[in-house]
Amino acid sequence: MQQYLPATKRRGASAVEFALVAPIFFLVVLGIVEFGRMAMVQQIITNAAREGARIAVLDGATKAKVTTKVNDYLSSGKINTAAVTVSPDPPDSAGYGQPVTVGVSVPFNDVSWLPAPFFMGGKTLAAESIMRRETVE
């Protein structure tokens, strides 16, 4: 026959269980937060590269116009430290139908919500968009 201990003899059991489970739980929660932010920033820089490429393929496009468009889009997502590349430079030097590439990259440490990102720390998120030049021949 099994005997049950009164509640007074199991007083610290929940504290011990919490001490064992809490670090793992918080590690998982912080990992979810970090991964979610990474996915969000990746989508924002992908969209910014696409918006920049849409400007770059038009007549009269300059690297300054493309960079301004990309940075305006990124600022709505609170991203201020991105590097923008445009190839060819200037973009309107490409002929009709030739590819124009706009790249955007940002270090994850600059956009993480955590004070010290531990999974993605030191990584760089990058996106690139390639479109064909639209111009009057």
UniProtKB/TrEMBL annotation:
It holds the Pfam family TadE. Residues 12-54 form the TadE-like domain. It comes from Posidoniimonas polymericola. This is TadE-like protein. Keywords: Membrane, Transmembrane, Transmembrane helix. It comes from the Bacteria. The chain crosses the membrane at residues 12-33.
